[in-house]
């Protein structure tokens, strides 16, 4: 790999990536769940606070690059403008491609 630029996955040699926030989904759900559970007692204020926490986490967290094919997460690569957000169509194409490749190389 030259220049630290990610063009090929070191795990599966896939060439398609998407970028997303390094966000812990479970933590986000937990925060939202606590906010919702407490909202009847706090007249919805806790829900607002938890939403704010969620939003704060979202902006604090760094972007990570994820491999479509194997799901490998790259945290220390510079952001590549070619890597957009997750695209279901690309994921499907990647899945079919890897299935095809597997069939070709038994
Ligand atoms: Zn990969």
Overview of this structure, please?
The chain has 106 residues and is mostly helical. The protein has one domain (17-104). The protein contains 3 helices and 3 strands. The protein has helices at residues 25-42, 45-60, 88-104; strands at 17-21, 63-67, 73-74. A 3-stranded antiparallel sheet has the order 1-2-3, with no helix packed on it. Strand 2 (63-67) and strand 3 (73-74) form a beta hairpin. The protein is elongated and about 60 Å long. Zinc ion binds at residues 9, 11-12, 14, 67, 69-70, 72.
Q: What labels describe this entry?
A:
48% helix, 3 helices, binds zinc ion, mainly alpha, single chain
What would you say about this model in short?
With 106 residues, this protein is mainly α. The protein has helices at residues 25-42, 45-60, 88-104; strands spanning 17-21, 63-67, 73-74. The protein has one domain.
Major beta sheet, strand line-up: 1-2-3
In helices, the fraction of residues equals 40-55%
The rounded Rg comes to: 19 Å
- Shape from CA axes? elongated
- SS elements, strand count: 3
Distance N terminus to C terminus? 27 Å
Distinct ligands: zinc ion
Order of helical and strand elements? EHHEEH
Strand content: 5-15%
Count the DSSP helices.
3
Structural class: mainly alpha
Task: Give the mean pLDDT.
Answer: 84
Biggest sheet statistics: 3 strands, antiparallel
Query: What number of domains?
Result: 1
Low-confidence stretches: none
């Amino acid at each position: 790999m030259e220049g630290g630029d990610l063009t090929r996955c070191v795990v599966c040699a896939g060439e398609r990536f998407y970028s997303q926030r390094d966000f812990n989904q479970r933590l986000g759900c937990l925060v939202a769940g606590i906010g919702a559970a407490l909202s009847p007692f706090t007249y919805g204020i806790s829900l607002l606070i938890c939403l704010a926490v969620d939003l704060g986490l979202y902006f604090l967290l760094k972007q990570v690059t994820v491999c479509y094919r194997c799901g490998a997460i790259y945290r220390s690569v510079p952001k590549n403008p070619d890597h957009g957000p997750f695209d279901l169509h690309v994921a499907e194409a990647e899945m079919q491609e890897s299935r095809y490749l597997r069939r070709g190389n038994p």
